[in-house]
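Onboarding guide, step 5: your first structure request.
Type a short instruction followed by the sequence, for example:

Predict the 3D structure of this protein.
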Amino acid sequence: MVRVVGVDPGSASWDFVGMDEDGSFFLDHSIPTKQIQKHPELFLNLIETTDFDIMSAPSGFGLPLKKIEDLKEEDFFFALLKKNPEKGMIVGLGQILKILQEQKVNGYFLPSVKHLSTVPRHKKVNKIDLGTADKLCTVVVGIRNQMEDYNISCEESSFIMVEMGYGFNAVIAIENGQITDGIGGSQLMGFRAVGSIDAEIAYLMGKIKKKDVYRGGVSSIAGYFDMRAEELLLLSKKDRKTKLAMDAFYDNLIKSVYAISSSFSSRDAIKEILFAGRLAKIDALIQPLKEKLSFIAPTKVMRSYVSISKESAQGAAFIANGLSGGRFADIVDNLKIRESSGSILDDIYLPLEQRM
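The system replies with C-alpha cells like these:
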C-alpha cells in the first residue's frame, strides 16, 4: 500500500495531509508559517515521525515535474524567485527544500500553471504567475468535487476556481478537466498582496523589491496590516478607508473572474464557480462575490476532505497518489502534469536583472 504526503507552504500556515492508497487519511496537520520560518526543524521532525512512501513537496513557483533528488542549485532560484537569497531568503521554503534533498526524501517537485501544456502559449507572454504549484493542487480537489457531485469523469469537469488565501488570491479556468488559463496571486489584489502594479506606478516606484509584492492590498490600504480578515470586514462597515479597501478587493476579484470566463469555449461550459482557501470559509466575506458572480455560473464553496488542512495540501496528496498510479491517476494524467515543461521565465519580453 502506497502512503503519500502532500504539503502546502501557505502565507499563514504550512499544511500537511497524509493519505493511504484506499483514500483514508492518516495525517491532517497545520503549523503556523512564522514558526516554520524560525524553526525549520519542526518540518523535519514531522516528516521523520511520519511513515510515507511519496511526497508532493512544497514547490513555490514550480518546475516541470521533477524528483526531489534531481533538484539542482538553479532550481531553488526558480522555486523562490528571490534574488540574492543569502540576503533575506525565505528561510522556511529555501531551507526545507535543502533538507528534503539532504534527507533523500522520495517525492516530487510540482509544476505551476505556466508549465502546463494545456495553457496556450500566448496566454503566458510576459506572465510568470498564472497560478503557483499549490493552486494546481487545489484544482485537483475541485475536479474531485465535480466528479462526485455530478457523477462524471475528470474529463467532463469544468469550473472557475477562486482561491482566496491569507495573503494571495488566484483565479483559474478549468475546462474538460484541464487548466486552460490562470490569474495568479501576483496579479490579483489580496488581503496582503498588491496584485498587478500599474506600469506608470512601477516606473515612479523605481526599483520594486520582493517585499512590495506582499503589501499594498486590503491591509495596507486600510492601515491595519496585522488585522485579521474577519476584523477588517467588520471594520469596513464603519471605517471609510477600510470600506475603500474592501470595495477595491471585491472589484478586482469580480473583474478577474469575468475576464477568465472568456477563456472557456462557451459560457455554458462553466458548470460552477468554486471558492477555496482560508478566506472562502468566511461566509460574510464571500457572500457578495457569490451574488455578483452568479450571473456567470452557480457558485459554492469547494468541499474539503479533511478537518484542518487547506485544499491545496489535500490536492498535493492526491497528485502524489496519482503519480504513483493510485486512484487519482486519471486526474493527474488528464491535467498533463507529467508533460509539464519549460521555464517560469519563458516568453518574457522585458529586461530582467536575473534569469539564472
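Each response can be followed by summary notes, for example: The first strand starts at residue 4 and ends at 9.
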